[in-house]
Amino acid sequence: MASGLRRPQVDLSRWDPEDPENWDPKLAWRTLWITTYNLMLAFCVWYLVSAIAPRLNDIGYDLTRAELYWLVAVPGLAGGSMRLIYMFLPPILGTPTLVGGTATLMLLPMVGWTLAVRDPGTPYAVLLLLAAAAGVGGGAFSGFMPSTSYFFPRRMAGTALGLQAGIGNFGVSLIQFLAPWIVGFGLLGTAALTPQQRIDGSEIWLHNVGLVLIPWVILGMVLAGVFLRSVPVTANFRQQLDIFREKHTWVMTAIYLMTFGAFSGFAAQLGLIIVNEYGSFADAPDPLKFAFLGPLVGSATRAFWGPLCDRYGGAIWTLVAGVGMTISTVFALFFLSPTEVGQFTWFLTGMLGIFFFAGIGNAGTFKQMPMIFPKRQAGGVIGFTASIAAFGPFLVGIALSMVTPRSFFIGCAVFFAFCTVLTWHYYARPGAPKPS
């Protein structure tokens, strides 16, 4: 290996992960960890609204159930839309600009929500705009993941992308886990910001949910600017459109919508589902104590399954995921419209099953795409499939505001089964067109 590759100032024009002589694993892993750190914060920002919304009416807002569903759904709509832009940026901007610039943009929703929760008179339209701003955290995924894929050989794609996506997804659980704790006191250095008064007269520092992330995001900006480098994978906008002529782009999009679409959608809406299905009982479960569990399970599974996908192939694990998600969804729907609060344990079990298998499927699909497509195209397909799947929070939220939860879960089970058949036919069966 040329020693010059280890120096940040050298010309990386010969970079080729498939050639040991022109690949620097130290640079690759450094890029992975810094980008993953920023991705985890991005997911925190993306799910900021889901951690705040269930408590807005407690501090003086008067929002309807539909308005709350929409508020939590909008970051999904914005994130998916932004991913359609982000997917083209890695070969245009390069890794340092992409990661550092995104971290800068993430400060807007954090500061905005810090101010909004301090004023219950904030118009609903402003809340929707702030929810849309949080979508930048979701959009980042379609830039960060393809960019990281440029740094690793195919044989390590499952491990590297599984770690990045899995640890990055921990941001969902992190913000939902932190929220119930940090709203109970004034953060160090910000105690001058007075708490909000709840309807029952108690105090809550709900603005902390946005404030707590700010110094860590600033650190991410510094790390990106100092340590990240770009490698020579370049293409203009027009050149990248060739992925849409490939049939497997669309097949993998449907499959990834099953895995990450379900993960992101249910992660955003699980707290509200618990409130609406079990909140009428006298000893109803606290949604904020359980909402983080699903994303935690799915994120951990995604991270741990990367090496298994490298060893056995991604398609077989995506197939296992589809079967498991279908069965878990059917199981969970039996405990909707409950007659007693004791059924919540079984409902939560079914939901955790969905998250567990979605994590396996997310790892499997990200192993498959670098195997199915050439490197530059694989980056674009990763970005595009992630863009569509990022609409999960929006689609789930809107669907739940229009149809009964039972009808929605039945529709999910049918879609999951369909995607499982696609996986088997194109990628997992003996003699499949694209074994991966």
Topology overview:
Layout: H1 25-46, H2 48-52, H3 65-86, H4 90-93, H5 95-116, H6 124-133, H7 136-139, H8 141-149, H9 157-182, E1 196-197, E2 203-204, H10 208-211, H11 214-227, H12 247-278, H13 293-312, H14 314-333, H15 344-372, H16 375-389, H17 392-402, H18 405-428
Antiparallel strand pairs: 1-2
Helix pairs in contact: 1-5, 1-9, 1-11, 3-6, 3-12, 3-16, 3-17, 5-6, 5-11, 8-9, 8-16, 9-13, 9-15, 12-15, 12-16, 12-17, 12-18, 13-14, 13-15, 14-15, 14-18, 15-16
Question: Care to describe what's here?
Answer:
The structure is a single chain. 67% of the residues lie in helices and 1% in strands. It has 436 residues and is mainly alpha-helical. A two-stranded antiparallel ribbon has the order 1-2. The longest helix has 32 residues, at 247-278. The protein is globular, with a radius of gyration of 21 Å. The model is unreliable at 1-11 (pLDDT under 50).
Features:
single chain, 436 residues, mainly alpha, two-stranded antiparallel sheet, 2 strands, globular
